Amino acid sequence: MSDFQLTYSTMFAPPRALHERFDAALARVRQRLGQAHGLFIDGAFVARAAALDKHNPARQSERLGRFAQASVDDVELAVAAARRALPAWRRTPWRERVALLRRAARLVDERLYEMAAIVSLEVGKTRMEALGEVAEVSAFFDIYARQMEENDGYDHALPDDPLPHMKSRNRSVMKPYGVWAVVAPFNFPFALAGGPTAAALVTGNTVVLKGSVETPWSGLLLAQCLKDAGLPDGAFNCLVGDGATVGEALIQHDGIGGVTFTGSYEVGMRILRAQVNRRWPRPCIAEMGGKNAAIVTARANLDAAAQGIVRSAFGMSGQKCSALSRVYVDRSVADALIERLRAAVGAIAVGEPQLESSWTGPVATRAAQLRHADCRRQLDGGGARIVAAGPLPADADAGFYCAPLVAEAPLDHPLWRKEMFAPLVMLGRVDGAEQAMAEANASDFGLTAGFFGAEDEVAWFLDHIEAGVTYVNRPLGATTGAWPGYQPFGGWKGSGSTGKALASFHYLPQYMREQSQTRIEP
After folding, report:
1. Which residues in the chain are classed under CATH 3.40.309.10?
2. Model confidence band, residue 3 (pLDDT cutoffs 50, 70, 90)
3. Is residue 2 over pLDDT 70?
4. Are 216 and 67 in contact, with CB atoms under 8 Å apart?
5. Closest CA to 316 of 92, 124, 510, 133
């Protein structure tokens, strides 16, 4: 397997050894389920009386562990620890910070299979989705380390002032903000904690991470990797707690210099406004929701379109902000596309996600299962109909399983505007590409978008679509599948606050502020 690099493009045909290693790691992890887990503050794992039992979303009878829950007092402790660690960490030469990130990346690689087994159990991801998420973290660490090197630590000499009798030297130096808060979501609890953490640390900030109460284990795995890589005590801290109390206390704390948030539009906008309204504005990188669309023209390859739609809409049971939610298909080929979708959706293997045979698993929470059921009820009447439905496993009642659904509905149906975050995709017939584009762009979101059409239609699509991540004629996923180093990932409009994408050329500088330095030499 030494020559096999796991990405979202290669994960569809992995070598046999990958499955064997995952199975062995899963067996080891299951032997130690049920343990108690603390918070990570000032370099140590600390127990708390308040704790929450976490169960496997595919098998609710399986208890994964008991996880400490943070309080507002713990926010104070974590921020204080990060502030104490900040002076030494920001003075650490950037090359040493880069070396530490690379050590952490190699530890992630070494622990890939066990950590992926944990992510699979915690989130309900299939083995391939879980392996992909963990591998993303080492990719983020490597990319941000390399970008620091390529930009010479973001320290650049500028032209001297043209003064005849003195030497006036000028520099542009990027410096960290201070303590950086990272608020991670439940659906990518390892990657979307690890990526922003890596960016903040390599640029000289210290970090306080708040993980989701739904998926509390992943942040602790990240903490262990960073600790073992030699990160100084206090430079990274991990809390798990309720967003309304612990999260609010963290993002409002006067000791925080900046925030990276991944989650809903409503919460992201509230955090963004709060940072602007501080005594002085703090930077806020808010990665928010999506209502992602794919356009299928009359000249599209319908087999590729059907494959891309199914992979994107139902991978991870639709619980990705990039998941396909809306399909606009030319009326002349709609029936033919529906026929292909019906066959493809019916063949989806829904089951216990740790099994090699399962292509998708349950949703992560009971709330998501109830939301899917509510959306299904909204499709009764009003011209809407289910045109394709996937199967459920025989033991579906044991976990939070939802049948994959394709629904055709009038274009004014309310579900065209609702971010469902569940395995349900809407399909609508349109009279040509222009109408499809107008409908695709008639959204507050602009995260990802897909297109299936003829080669001479591609430039038009890319010129007109309002989305930060675009895919053309991609059967691997109509709107999903970005991988660090290959596809930068960030949204427009209500999907992102900065217009800068994760793992892009423009991401790291957001974690620093520029200082112009002019000095007169003797």
Report:
1. 292-483
2. low
3. no
4. yes
5. 124
* Amino acid (one-letter) located at 506: H
Answer yes or no: pTM beyond 0.70.
yes
| Phi, psi angle pair for 108, to nearest 5° | -60, -45
Give the Cα separation of 201 and 207 in Å (integer). Answer: 7
pLDDT given at position 370: 96
263: nearest Cα among 246, 285, 240: 285
Are 350 and 360 a contacting pair, CB within 8 Å? yes
Cβ-based neighbour number of residue 61 at 10 Å: 8
Strand ranges inside 365-453, DSSP E = 385-389, 405-408, 424-430, 445-446, 448-452
Answer whether residue 165 shows pLDDT above 90.
Answer: no
pLDDT one-digit tens code per residue, 471-510: 999 999 999 999 999 999 999 999 999 999 999 999 999 9
Instruction: Give the pair of three-digit tokens for residue 254.
Output: 């006067």
Does position 5 have pLDDT exceeding 90, yes or no? no
Average pLDDT value for the chain:
96
Residue 49, both tokens: 């009386």
- In CATH, which of 3.40.50.720, 3.50.50.60, 3.40.605.10, 2.160.10.10 is domain 18-288+499-521? 3.40.605.10
**Residues 6+ away with beta carbon under 8 Å from 41:** 74, 77, 78, 81, 237, 238, 239
Please give the average per-residue pLDDT across 509-518, as a whole number. 97
Q: Where in the chain is the domain with CATH 3.40.605.10?
A: 18-288+499-521
Q: Smallest Cα–Cα separation from 208: which of 72, 395, 50, 75?
A: 75
Q: 493 and 444 in contact (C-beta within 8 Å)?
A: yes
> Could you report the per-residue pLDDT of 338-371, keeping only the tens digit for each?
999 999 999 999 999 999 999 999 999 999 999 9
Tokens matching residue 507: 């991401």
The DSSP result for 237-288, as a single string, is EEEE--IIIIIHHHHT-TTEEEEEEES-HHHHHHHHHHHHTSSSPPPEEEE-
Q: What is the mean pLDDT of residues 307-331?
A: 97
Fold of 292-483: Aldehyde Dehydrogenase; Chain A, domain 2 (3.40.309)
Question: Count H helices, E strands: the chain?
Answer: 14, 22
Residue 168 bridge partners (DSSP): 520
Which residues participate in catalysis according to the annotation? 287
Whole-number Cα distances in Å, 378 to 36, 381, 418: 41, 8, 11
Question: What pLDDT, in 10s, does the model give residues 77-113?
Answer: 999 999 999 999 999 999 999 999 999 999 999 999 9
